[in-house]
Structure formats: C-alpha cells, structure tokens
Amino acid sequence: MKLDYIHEPFLLFNYNQKVIDPRDGLTLFGPYNKNKVNNFSIGIIGTSFGRQKLKCWLEKFSKPIIPLKKDFSKPFYPGFEAIFGVSINPHSIIEIDIEENKLKEFYRYSDSHIRVANMVDLYVDELVEYKKDDDRPPVNIWFVIIPDDVYLHGRTKSKAGGNIIKVGIKDKLSRTSATLFDEIMPDLVKDREAYQYDNHFHNQLKLKLLKHEILTQIVRESTIAYNEYPYLKKNNEPKRDLSKMETDIAWNIATSVYYKIGGLPWKLGTIRKGVCYIGLVFKVDSRQKSHKYACCAAQMFLDSGDGMVFKGAVGPWYNEDTREYHLTKSAAFDLLDKALKSFQKSNNKELPKEVFIHGRTKFDDEEWSGFCDAVSEYDISLTGVTIKDEKTFKLYRDKDFPILRGSYYIKDKNNAFLWTKGFIPRLQQPLGMETPNPLTISLIRNNGRVPIDTVCRDILALTKLNYNSCRFCDGLPVTLKFANVIGDILTSGKIDDLKPALPFRYYI
C-alpha cells in the first residue's frame, strides 16, 4: 500500500504572485484583480442599536487588527483598505431603520411561518422599496444587521419567546378554498402566503431578494458587539465569547464583501485552462406532497474561480429502487445546456475543453445520456465524479500529528481516497479536531479518460475557493461545500419568477 502526496495548491494574487495561504497573499500582494473595483457604496439596515454598533465596527474593520496571541491560524489583519485598495466612506453610508418594537412583537407570534415571514418582510420590503426609488443613491451591498433574537426565533425548529401572541390560519386554510378565503378575509392573505415559504430567516431573506438582485451581507449583532451586547449570561459574560476571533471575523467579512461587490480575491494558481466544474445538488421540496419531488440545482465554477447557480426543474426525481435522485434525460440536457451557454457568456463565446460534474450519487444511464447530448455538438471532454465522505476507512500515524492534508491513495484507475483534512504545516495544526477521514473519489463516467490523480488534484484545489470566508482551506470542494445551503435557499419558497442564472455571490 503506497500513499502519494499532492503539494498544497497555490493561489494567484496581484502581480501574478503565488502563495498557498489566502491571508498571506492578500497581505503581501493584494487581491487578484486589485484595480478592478473602485470605491463602493454600502447600506446598513437594522435596529438603531445594530446600526450604531456596525458603524463603530466598520471603522475598526478599516484599520489593522492585531490578534491577542501569536497563532498561525489567526494571523494579523492589515485593514480593509490596505488589503483591497478600496475604501469605505463612513459619511456616505445609507441607513434604513428597523423598528425594534415590531421585531419584539413578531418574536412572540405562536405560528413559526407567520413569525419568520413577518420578520423577513420587515427587511425585504424596505430594501426593495429603496432599490425601486430612482431618486436615492445606489447601494452596492447592504449589511443586514440582525439581533440575536432574530436568529433565535427565526429558524425551522425555533419557538416563540415572551408572552406568546396567538396567530395562525392553518385550520382556516384547510377548510376554505383559496378564492373564498381572499373574499372573506383579505387582511389575512399575506399570512396565507407565509406558508409558501420555509420558516428560516436567512434562507427566506436570500430567496426573496434574488429576483431583485440585491446583494447582502448578514451579520448578527453579537458578532461585532460581543462585549456590549445587551443579552448576557450569568456573571455578565457574553453569550458568544468572540474576543479571540476578531481577526478571523474581519478576514471573513472582508473577503466576502470584496467578492460580492465584484472583486476576485484570488484564483487558483494551478488550475487548468478551459476547465469547468459543476456540482449537482438535489434538495427535497417540503412544500410538495411527496418526498419524491426534489429541486435540482447546479453550481458551475469556472477556471477563474467565479461561480454561477442554475435552478433545474422541480420534479419526481426519486428512484425507489436505487433510493437516489436522478434527472430525466431532457432535464439533464437542459441543465448542462444552460451551464455551457453561461460559460460562453463569461468567456468571450468560448466553450470549455473539459467539464467535470461532481455529485454525491452515481449518474444513471438516462441522466448521463442527457449530459452527453448537451456536449455532443462540441469537442468537450465530459467526466462524472462522485465525492463522498468515507465513513469506515481511517489511517493513523505514530506521530504527534495526523496524516498530512493532500495525501491520497489510488485503489484503481477509477477510485481513490483523498485526505482534504489533516495536518497543515503552514498552520502547524490539523484541519479539524479528530483523526481525519478521507473523501472517496470515484470516476463513474469518464468519457475523456482523465487520470484519477488529476481529478484528486483538482478537487484538492477546489477546497480553496470559498470566497464566503478567508480560511486556508475547507474539507470539501466548493462544488459541494455549499450544496445544502444553496439547495435550502432554492427550496425555501416560491421562485417562479427567478431569473435562470445568478452569480454565486447572491446566495452566500
């Protein structure tokens, strides 16, 4: 048994400099396209307390932050303007007030769907109205600052707080037709619509803003005001002790904001030109009567590192025999055809040379036939890859640290184990707290006859493309990292009027 090793993939920054740690590269050289983004405008929507604390934090965020102790995994933060060459003018910030008393009233609503929908609409209505008003200055990105109680009472299994206010129309809906309901109770029509969405604040907010193409950065109040946050535990200790995480918080928000305003913090330094990676996601639509119905979504990532999200049709994709979700031939064709057209649009009408489709399950014959038909007119190599968390196989070392990240073992020409977690010399610590399990990589469909070690190298590189944070790496490639998040958003409510494809930045 022989283990091979893939050296940590390089990232590309300003001046075409290559570094393995994104924070090192941004500190030393700046983002990949440093001069592409000029100064931008931001808006803040939240309660009076939240807006005040965020403005104070933004001033701190623009300046250097020194970690409390020396830690390779939590390096020095130079300041937003020093890193990206873009400044935030504190005197031109647009503010929208959210009445705290209204939020406190909604926290008490007994019905979770109506409670969450009212909280979400309080923010959404204001943001949409602002964008529609042409007389107001444009805003590139909105900071949505939410009290921790919104997070507490705005999740799927959350409960009402305080003196509960009885609300709910489920029984009335079950006994009354939709038309009659509108005629006799027009004031409750909005409450009825609340049941068409999942009772999850984050997902519902993102979904309702997609069709308006409004970019947001959601921040909890305690994240940026943990020492002053009014809701404390015993002995006046903050609920979330983030004092040791200040540089982490600043790095993560800075990278996410820069990406959302149109910048590219870094790109892969060793990626092969003309390669397109697509992550295929199935998410059960709970609003359907049968569990067989699911929404199919595809995340496409270009060789530049940027990504797009495509929504396929909701359909009965579940197969009782295999207990897996699979597309029909026509649905698979439509999905890949959309991805190829989007690739052309982003690459001066050029098509990719290679397309890799990543999934959690195998691709059946009908599904793969649809994908093949989509590329049949072009000279494109198509490869299907399944990526799963290995549950059984583990390797232990008789050393002070676990197996190195980047180790891999080739079982045969189509199967391998890849350790995307493990000890990282640059950080002097492993990724994760336990002895890491590998990923099981399988080439299920390999029309292009791509070597398994090449696929492993690509997957390891794709663990470094998470622009929603500024970590050294993730344990999963970006094609699958946000699979559940995006699937949850796409299935959290009505999306009939959603545009065919939107950049990845609108979902994170």
Would you write up a description of this structure?
With 508 residues, the protein is an alpha+beta fold. It has 17 helices and 21 strands. The protein has 2 domains: 37-260, Rossmann fold; 270-388 and 447-506, Ribonuclease H-like superfamily/Ribonuclease H (Nucleotidyltransferase, domain 5, 2-Layer Sandwich), CATH 3.30.420. The strands form 5 sheets. A 10-stranded mixed β-sheet has the order 1-16-17-20-15-14-9-10-11-21, sandwiched between helices. The chain has a 4-stranded parallel β-sheet with strand order 5-4-6-7, with helices on both faces. The model has no long low-confidence stretch (mean pLDDT 85).
Global morphology: globular
CATH class of the largest domain: Alpha Beta
- Ends apart, CA distance between termini: 41 Å
Q: How many separate domains make up the residues?
A: 2
CATH topology of the largest domain: Rossmann fold
State the strand order across the main sheet. Answer: 1-16-17-20-15-14-9-10-11-21
Q: Which sheet architecture does the biggest sheet show?
A: 10 strands, mixed
> Please, how many helices?
17
Residue stretches low in confidence (pLDDT < 50, at least 5 long) are none
The fourth-level CATH homologous superfamily of the largest domain is Response regulator
CATH architecture classification name of the largest domain: 3-Layer(aba) Sandwich
Cα-based radius of gyration, to the nearest Å = 24 Å
Average predicted local confidence, pLDDT: 85
- Strand composition percent: 15-25%
* Class by alpha and beta content: alpha+beta
Give the strand tally. Answer: 21
Task: Please estimate the helix content.
Answer: 25-40%
